[in-house]
Structure formats: C-alpha cells, structure tokens
Amino acid sequence: MPDYEAVIGLEVHAQLKTASKLFCSCSTAFGSEPNENVCEVCSGMPGVLPVLNRTAVEYAVKMGLAVNCEINERSVFARKNYFYPDLPAGYQISQYESPLCGPGHLDVETSAGPRRIGITRIHMENDAGKNIHSSAENVSYVDLNRAGVPLIEIVSDPDIRTSEEAVAYLKGLRSILLYLGICDGNLEEGSFRCDANVSIRPRGQAEFGTRAELKNLNSFRNVQRAIDYEIGRQADLLDDGEAVVQETRLYDAGRNTTASMRGKEEAHDYRYFPDPDLIPIQLERAWIEKWAAELPELPRERRERMAAEYDLPAEDARILTEEKGLADYFEAAVAAYDAPKKIANWMVGEFLRRLNETHTAAEDAAMGPESLAALVALIDKGTISGKIAKDVFPDLFASGRAPEEYVKAKGLVQISDAGAIEAAVDAVIAANPAEVEAYRGGKTKLMGFFVGQVMRETRGKANPQLVNELLQGRLG
Ligand code: ADP
Ligand code: MG
Ligand code: ZN
C-alpha cells in the first residue's frame, strides 16, 4: 500500500464586526428577535439599490494587509446565483474575477517547524439568512437577520499537509482578526467558519488527487478530527482500488464521520456576472496607506517583542499572545508587579486552565491582572507558600477577591516565625525515632519525609525554607 500525503486548502468565512450590514443600514446585532433587522435591500425586494458599507471595505483591506496580500485598487462585485430559502434575492453578492485582495501568506508554527501557507485571495460578500427547522411543528422558518451581514472569504492555497497545520493556520487567522478587532472569531456562533478541501496523493506524486469539501466544522477540534477522518476514508478507497468522488461532505461530530451531502458544484453552475447595481470599488492609494498605518501590533510582532522584552520562553510567549486579551492581561499584571516569568508561569498553567474550563475570556475573568500580580507578590514576600497559592487559586479565580485580604481572612498566612515552627519540628522528631536514626545513619533522602510531616503539623503554612533549615539543624 502506498504512503499517502494529504493536500488541504481552507476556505474561511469571517463575519465583519461592522454596526450595519454590507449593503443597507440594518443592524448586525446578534441575538435580536427573528427578522427584526431586515429591510427591502437585505430581504431581496426588487427595485431597491444596495449601497456599500465603507467600514466593511476598510476591515477587509486591513485583513489583507495583515496577511501580506496584494491589495487591488479596483475590485468588482459579482452575483453568485443559486436558490435557497435563506437567500431571498436568489443570488449572493460576492466577488469573483476581481477580488479585493490578491495573493498573500501566513506563517505558522507546527511541531515539525515553521510553515508558510499561501493565501490565494480575500474577497467580500454578504452572508445569507438562517433556516430554522422545527420538526415538532413540521415547518421551517426563515430568519433574515443575518442576511446581508458582511463577510470576508479567505481562500488558502492547497499548501496545507496535515490537520495540525490546518488548525495552526486557522488559529493564526483568527488571532489576527481578533487583534484587528474586525471579527468576533466565534466558531460555535458561526462568526468564524471554515470549509476544508481535502485530497490525498501517493507521496512523491506531483498531481493533486480528487478533493472532497468538508462542511460543518464548528470547532478547532472538529476541524482536526474531520480532516483526519477524511484522509483515512480516502486512503481506504484508494487502497481498495476505488476512486474518490469530488463532492461536498458534512462532518458529523457525534459519530466522527463525514457523509456525502451533495455533488460538488462548479463555478459555472453559479452563472457569475458583475452586479449591475454596484459600481466597481476604486480604492484611493491614500486610503490604503492610511489603513496600513493604522494596523495595530499583530500577534507575531507582539510574540517576538514580549519574548525579548520579558525574557519569556518561546512557547509561553506564543501561548500568551495568541489571544489579544490574554496578552493585555499579562502586560497589565507585569505593570502591577514586575515578575514577568513568574506571572507567565501562573498564566500558562493555572489561569489558562481555568479560563478554558469556564469558557471565559481573559478580559472577562473575575480575577483581574492586579489580583494575579498580587498573588505572585505574596509568594515572593513569603506571606504564603507556592503550595497554598495553588490551593487558593480556584477560589480567587472564581471570586475575584483580593489575595492579601483573602489569605488573612482564611488564616493562611505562612508561618515564618522560627519559634512556632520549632515546636512542630520537635514534635515530628519525637514521633519518628526510627526515621531519625536511619537519617543519621546516612539515609538523607528521608529529609523529604520530615519536611512533609512538619508541613502537615502546620497545615501547610510553615515556610518550607525555614522548615528545611530547622530540620537540618536538629538532625544534622
Ligand atoms: P471552489 O471555489 O470550487 O471551492 P477553489 O478552486 O476556489 O474551488 O478551491 C477552493 C479551495 O480548495 C482552495 O482553498 C484550494 O486551495 C483548495 N483545493 C483546490 N484543489 C485542491 C485539491 N486537489 N486538494 C485539496 N484542496 C484543494
Ligand atoms: Mg468552495
Ligand atoms: Zn437591510
């Protein structure tokens, strides 16, 4: 059986966070009453004219600039014709031959090293509405609130070779969108959506194999699992002497399989033609330059700066800068207490774990950056031990209480008074004569045992360094 290599290209749809829709002034607010934000334009009435949202163009260009794309000063809207109940006009307004942004690329880190993924194009289009099927009532509803919301479609070159690379690329795009502040990046709510084109070929073969397009990938985990499943399915087909069919397949997360949804439509099926209601976009050089100058520090730059400025391990810097909110949190904590490495440690460990468990964004955490900084300071000052800090962390994280006040109220302040610890040391030595003899006979490894016993006596509050010193004095 040949060794196969996968070839993957991703199509990403990102909803732009403009206040109004792409071609009308309806609100883009998520969670409104069904069909609350709808007008003649976005409900596809005949005889009304679309008017382009300038901010959407600005956002799309900024994304293009952030991923090294050529920006086309002239681009054209085209009608993509198809019928579906959530598309009342009978066509989507998209861009076809002349997209807003041309070739670019994104560099990603993978376990096999850095990889550069080409971006074919970024174009603008409007979103469709939503069909809601009620099996209880045996009817379907159409909600047009989403119809007309601006999207950018980011199409990658078929440069991706593994599901890991696909996820790294997607995380990289999402991170940039969030840094730019132009998209929520929410996979579950669908403000960041991805279709994966997957094919395989015998390793070493130049031509691509036939691809399947996977849909319904609403988490990074599902992207990874769907691609891996699909690679296996295609390999089985080829091994059995069968052919892969070009088609659109739907991922079923519950069963972790993909199933055929429909045959693949070709571009000519859509009867693309330039939209006669919209004049081509003609960008002035000065606008592009202004938008380029307005770009914020992007994830890659921030990662490199933070690694150098705070002397962080590369992996910590990568994790801390993936989300802008996390990086802001880190820098606020360091401003409050100048111990970047320790703060990074707590954030990459305890803090991130709890954010993930509670599905909370760093900026929404009850425990603010000053609290985390204060906790690290308490350990440094010897007020509490690292062990106690770990124990109280979940409470502090959930409540947002000030660490200093909290450890005092709970009586957790570390005992750094030698007199108080001596009593415990004496008690432990008296209670364990056999171990004491063994220790004096050369089994110095028993020190850990004695320290543990003293910590138990003091309910974890004794200053461990002091315990060590006192024990060494007594046993030595
Ligand atoms: P369509 O618009 O019909 O989906 P495109 O040519 O725009 O087709 O390609 C869509 C995506 O499919 C792109 O990301 C591209 O990189 C990817 N792609 C094209 N050919 C292959 C292939 N043989 N295997 C995997 N991905 C592919
Ligand atoms: Mg496609
Ligand atoms: Zn409208």
Could you list some keywords that capture this structure?
single chain; 476 residues; alpha+beta; Arc Repressor Mutant, subunit A; 3 domains; 8-stranded mixed beta sheet; 15 strands; 20% strand; binds adenosine-5'-diphosphate; binds magnesium ion; binds zinc ion
Average pLDDT confidence is 95
Straight-line distance between termini = 67 Å
Query: What compounds are bound to the protein?
Result: adenosine-5'-diphosphate, magnesium ion, zinc ion
Give the class from helix and strand content and strand pairing. alpha+beta
Q: Total number of helical segments?
A: 15
How many beta-strand segments?
A: 15
Biggest β-sheet description: 8 strands, mixed
Fraction of helical residues: 40-55%
- Spans of at least 5 consecutive residues with low confidence: none
Order of helices and strands: EHEEEEEEEEHEEHEEEEHHHHHHHHHHHH
Q: How many domains make up the coordinates?
A: 3
> Going across the major beta sheet, what is the strand order?
5-6-9-1-10-11-12-13
Described by its quaternary structure, the protein is single chain
- Taken from the alpha-carbon principal axes, the silhouette is elongated
Approximately what portion of the residues adopt beta-strand conformation?
15-25%
> Whole-number radius of gyration?
29 Å
Walkthrough of the structure:
The mean pLDDT is 95. The chain is built from 15 helices and 15 strands. Strand 5 and strand 6 form a beta hairpin. An 8-stranded mixed β-sheet has the order 5-6-9-1-10-11-12-13. It is elongated. The relative contact order is 0.10. With 476 residues, it is an alpha+beta fold. The chain has 3 domains: 4-287, no CATH class; 297-409, no CATH class; 418-475, Arc Repressor Mutant, subunit A. The structure holds adenosine-5'-diphosphate, magnesium ion and zinc ion (ZN). Residues 21, 24, 26, 38-39, 41-42, 148 line the site of zinc ion.
